[in-house]
Amino acid sequence: MIQTLEWTDHGVRFLDQTKLPTEETYVTCKTHEQVADVIRNMVVRGAPAIGVAAAMGIALGVNNSKAESIGDLKRDFDQISDVIGKTRPTAVNLFWAIRRMQEKFERVRIRPIAHIKQALIEEAQRMHAEDIAANQAMGRHGAALMPAEGGVLTHCNAGALATAGYGTALGVIRAAVEQGKKIHVYADETRPFLQGSRLTAWELMKDGIPTTVISDNMAGAMMRQGKIAAIVVGADRIAANGDVANKIGTYTVAVLAKEHNIPFYVAAPISTVDLACPDGSQIPIEQRDPREVTHIAGKQMVPEGVAVENPAFDVTPASYVAAIITERGIARAPYEESLRTLAAPAPEGDAHP
Ligand code: MRU
Predict the structure, then answer these.
(1) Where does substrate bind (predicted)?
(2) Taking residues 248-276, what's their average pLDDT?
(3) Cystine design at 346: which of 50, 181, 218, 350 (Cβ 3.0–4.6 Å)?
């Protein structure tokens, strides 16, 4: 199984995704600042993985704290959370994870410092395990939506590498394949960072799932030729009305899907749903270094000094989304109602201890 990130006795260990697909190397972070750097530099990426990384970064930072009073420990906790919270703005899982760690701190703050540190480590590990379980549940719900046979297009990487394991969109595909469905994946290359060609193709090949990489501008032609029966992607933030922020280029795929009458599905955990965000216009979109666009493997591809845009995400309006697959079930339009119902707090006894 792919170990995207894990808590170890020596720190938080990450599979370095910037080196894939040619090198499988790991980096171990010993401080929360290092964890913030690996999130920012996309050694680890993908909304759910960023959330778990944030929780582990906080646990690491608090564990390293020299504070001798609960007040000082809380001050350190807040400073650590602030550093982690400034890494990437779009994936709401980051802020969800920080909030959950804050709530854990508040629940155990009357206990001795060593106990608080241990409780935070355990909470981060629990979030790791829960994420895998959520993806498997998404797979169970979503597999029924996949064709018995045919091409399924995905954009970016919403797989094991973008989560604690199994994946959201790729989890749905994995579950469908496990049920015996004969799916052929079309993986959009996903310029400029190439999550599709470098990461999605890498992890699907490891699993022996038939995969064809296409450059992003080929998707329309593939749909027109009847090669695509369904589309499934992940999400970085889903607004209360069902608008979906995901990797730049997702919106283009959704519009093409509508033109060709192909269902466009989104798979994401409830932690990606931001009910405080009324619609997609309120979702902050990360702008990344223009060099990701101007250079490929270190080689300059555009003239010196030309204007460049590099938004990392776009927003797909809810009207293009056939269904949102979550670990608690499938949401359909009107999303204001279906998402609010699914995202309602888990019943007593089901809550995190
Ligand atoms: O910039 P990235 O690689 O972090 O963007 C990742 C995506 O857009 C994914 O589709 C999304 O986070 C869902 S991952 C399960």
Answers:
(1) 45-47, 88, 195, 246-247
(2) 98
(3) 350
Cβ burial 253-285 (10 Å sphere, 16+ → b, else e): bbebbeebebbbbbbbbbbbbbeebeebeebeb
* H-state helical runs in 41-168: 47-64, 70-85, 93-108, 113-142
Task: Tell me if 236 CB under 6 Å of ligand 1.
Answer: yes
* Torsion sign over Cα 264, 230, 233, 296: negative
DSSP 172-194: HHHHHHHTT-EEEEEEE--TTTT
- Whether 94 has a pLDDT exceeding 70, the answer reads yes
If you classify domain 5-135 with CATH, what class do you get? Answer: mainly alpha
When the candidates are 3.10.129.10, 3.30.1490.20, 3.40.50.620, 3.40.50.10470, the CATH number that belongs to 144-343 is: 3.40.50.10470
Kind and range of the H or E element at 328?
none
In order of 54, 230, 270, 349, the CA distances from 172 in angstroms are 25, 12, 15, 28
User: Nearest-5° angle of CA 149, CA 151, CA 154?
Assistant: 130
pLDDT tens by residue, 289-344: 999 999 998 999 999 999 999 999 999 999 999 999 999 999 999 999 999 999 99
CA quadruple 36, 41, 43, 45: dihedral sign: positive
* Ligand 1 center to 70 CA (angstroms): 36
| Ligand 1: centre distance to CA 234 (Å) | 7
Rounded-to-integer distance, Cα 319 and Cα 258, Å: 10
Domain range list for the chain: 5-135, 144-343
Q: Is 150 known as a binding-site position?
A: no
CA atoms within 13 A on the CB side of 126: 13
pLDDT confidence band for 146 (50 / 70 / 90): very high
Of 328, 278, 287, the closest CA to residue 135 belongs to 328
- Phi and psi angles of residue 257, each rounded to the nearest 5 degrees, phi first: -60, -45
Whole-number Å distance between alpha carbons of 246 and 157: 10
Residue 71: left if φ>0, alpha if ψ -120 to 50, beta else—which one? alpha
Q: The whole model's pTM is what?
A: 0.97
